[in-house]
Amino acid sequence: MAEQSDTDFTALIPELPQWNDGAGIDAESWIGCVGNFELATGYSLIFWPGFVRFEGYVLREGFGEGGLGEEGLRGFEQQPSPNDASIETVRASVEAVMNHVHIADIHCNVQPTEAQLRYLGRVLKDIHEVKLRRDFPDLRFVVSFNDEPNLDLIDYQLTFWQAVD
To answer: pTM for this one?
Structure first.
């Protein structure tokens, strides 16, 4: 991940230069002006996610609340897999599907830019790696974000699964 000091936040937040009669404002000051504590509290769920163990899986907390739930998990378990696939490999595939997040879905009715999605995806990837390592020091994880240019915006996804040895 590139350091935040290397990031051009005016490209990610185009209104920054318009503040203060065109003199501009830095991103943290802008947050102080337009943000609120309700949003900050809500964003904590995205930027410091919770995880749960469920029958050997590690899943995003609340996977059954508005998500795919146990029924979805069972459906993915029943999907055909190659005959040579180990149980661990199948479980990793199920975890990857259950834990995926489309970065563009963080907000509805807002059209993000590719640069915004890629920046947030990189940050969230780093956060998930740190949080999973902290919460499950006995397990190893793969955290994946497809950080490629020129994808369809909905294809910028983050996911994780337990590493298979």
So the answer is: 0.90
CA distance 91 to 76: 9
What are the domain boundaries of the chain? Answer: 1-35, 49-162
Across the strands, what pairs with 54?
57
130-156: b or e for each residue (b if 16 or more CB lie within 10 Å)? ebbeeeeeeeebebbbeeeeeeeeeeb
What is the rounded distance in angstroms from the CA atom of residue 94 to the CA atom of residue 144? 14
Q: Taking a C-beta distance cutoff of 8 angstroms, is the pair 58, 132 a contact? A: yes
Return the SS3 of 133: helix
Average pLDDT over residues 65-92: 81
Angstrom distance (rounded) from CA 10 to CA 16: 6
